């Protein structure tokens, strides 16, 4: 049995996905079950299971993901109003154990008051 994550299989082209961006460190795909008008996933090629598993070695990668999230929001025309979500751990709703940033935006979503 393969230990590869679903996202590693997408990165390797073994499973199709709608890719909107890629570079040497990460890819960005449309979420298959969008929770907002715009819902994409920014995924590092390195399979870090959870954000809490990242180490100092991943510092540059994590910084680059944040910068890339801004670039992608600009590319999608939502840089004035978008949200980033990282679910860490099963109890927090994480279902794919390969670090990813949810980028969510669009009418009826960005303006919603989440209470924090
Ligand atoms: P999380 O619950 O934070 O682990 O997020 C996993 C996300 O991956 C969910 O929003 C799913 O809808 C999404 N997802 C699952 N399978 C696929 C797939 N094959 N292609 C694109 N997105 C997927």
Q: Topology of this structure?
A:
Blueprint: H1 6-11, E1 19-22, E2 26-30, E3 38-44, H2 59-75, E4 82-85, E5 101-105
Antiparallel strand pairs: 1-2, 2-3, 3-5, 4-5
The structure holds adenosine monophosphate.
Adenosine monophosphate binds at residues 6, 15, 17, 29, 31-33, 41, 87, 93-96.
What does it look like?
- The model has no long low-confidence stretch (mean pLDDT 94).
- This protein has 116 residues and is an alpha+beta fold.
- The protein has a single domain, classed as HIT family, subunit A, CATH 3.30.428.
- 20% of the residues lie in helices and 22% in strands.
- Bound molecules: adenosine monophosphate (AMP).
- Adenosine monophosphate (AMP) binds at residues 6, 15, 17, 29, 31-33, 41, 87, 93-96.
Structural class: alpha+beta
Helix count?
A: 2
CATH architecture: 2-Layer Sandwich
Separation, N- and C-terminal Cα atoms = 42 Å
Identify the overall geometry.
globular
Q: Write out the distinct hetero groups bound to the structure.
A: adenosine monophosphate
Give the H and E element order: HEEEHEE
Name some characteristics of this structure.
HIT family, subunit A; five-stranded antiparallel β-sheet; binds adenosine monophosphate; about 120 residues; globular; alpha+beta
């Amino acid at each position: 049995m393969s230990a590869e994550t679903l996202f590693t299989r997408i990165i390797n082209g073994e499973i199709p996905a709608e890719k909107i961006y890629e570079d040497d460190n990460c890819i960005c795909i449309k979420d298959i079950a969008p929770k907002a008008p715009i819902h994409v996933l920014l995924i590092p090629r390195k399979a870090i299971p959870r954000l809490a598993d990242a180490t100092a070695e991943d510092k540059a990668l994590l910084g680059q993901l944040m910068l890339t999230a801004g670039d992608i929001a600009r590319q999608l025309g939502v840089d004035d109003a978008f949200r980033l979500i990282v679910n860490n751990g099963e109890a927090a709703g994480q279902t794919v154990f390969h670090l990813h940033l949810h980028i969510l935006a669009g009418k009826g979503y960005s303006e919603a008051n989440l209470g924090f």
